[in-house]
Amino acid sequence: MKKMELILLMVLVVILSGCNHENEQVKLLDTVNQIQGMENYEPSGDLSRTFSENIVYQVADISWKGNSGVAEVKVTTPDLEQVISDAIQAAIDEQGTEDYDILLDNVKKNIQSILDSEDYTTLQSTIEMNTEKTKDGYKLISNEEFEKIISGNLEEIFFQALKEGLANENSN
Questions:
Q1: What would the pLDDT profile of 112-130 be if each residue is shown by its tens digit?
Q2: Are 139 and 38 spatial neighbours (Cβ–Cβ below 8 Å)?
Q3: Distance CA 170, CA 19 (A)
Q4: Which residues 6+ apart lie within 8 Å of 148 measured at CB?
Q5: What CA–CA distance (Å, rounded) separates 171 from 51?
Q6: Which region among 14-23, 82-91, 115-124 has the lowest average model confidence (pLDDT)?
Q7: What's the rounded Cα separation, in Å, for the pair 38 and 142?
Q8: Distance between CA atoms of 52 and 97, rounded to whole angstroms?
Q9: What residues does 72 pair with on adjacent strands?
Q10: Do 82 and 121 form a contact (C-beta atoms < 8 A)?
Q11: Which of 43, 73, 93, 115 measures 20 to 30 Å from 153, CA to CA?
């Protein structure tokens, strides 16, 4: 009887502690080959590599229907819009705006420095991704929303900057 109580207690402890791989936060670059559609993902350049090294995700829950399912995935990335804004402001403060090439080089250095320091705000997005069972557990299937997030939402940042630039131009 004591042996059965001990086994039940151990099972209860494991359940309550949430010891399963679904709740672990993992780095994207460490697991990118385990995400279907991302097998060839390779950041180009130092800045995108450093940004990608700071992307983590966590599978919060999976709803299964047979061998397929839908996973709730929480993705955390550096807030690239804030990083870029801070880097530009620091470069302007240091160099001014006279020489565009020097300003651009300083912005790139500042972005690299901020990302290397890991002292930046982050964004957390929760998305759904299709999932398939495998012999080793499961495999996430990449989608447009996931790829947009891990690119730092650059498309949105660009369009926002473009809209602000046009609004400023029209108000003058």
A1: 999 999 889 999 999 999 9
A2: no
A3: 57
A4: 155
A5: 35
A6: 14-23
A7: 7
A8: 29
A9: 61, 128
A10: yes
A11: 93
pLDDT of residue 104: 84
Neighbours of 125 (CB within 10 A): 16
Token pair 């290397």 in the structure block, residue: 116
The tokens 């090294």 sit on which residue? 53
Q: Are 67 and 133 in contact (CB under 8 A)?
A: yes
Q: What are phi and psi of 133, to 5 degrees?
A: -70, 145
Q: If you write DSSP's letter for every residue of the chain in order, what string do you get?
A: -HHHHHHHHHHHHHHHHT-SGGG-EEEHHHHGGGEET-TT----SHHHHHHHHT-EEEEEEEEEETTEEEEEEEEEEE-HHHHHHHHHHHHHHHH-SS-HHHHHHHHHHHHHHHHHHT-S-EEEEEEEEEEEEETTEEEEE--HHHHHHHTTTHHHHHHHHHHHHHHHHHH-
pTM across the whole model: 0.74
- On whether the CB atoms of residues 51 and 152 are closer than 8 A, the answer is yes
| Residue (of 75, 77, 78, 70) closest to 58 by Cα position | 75
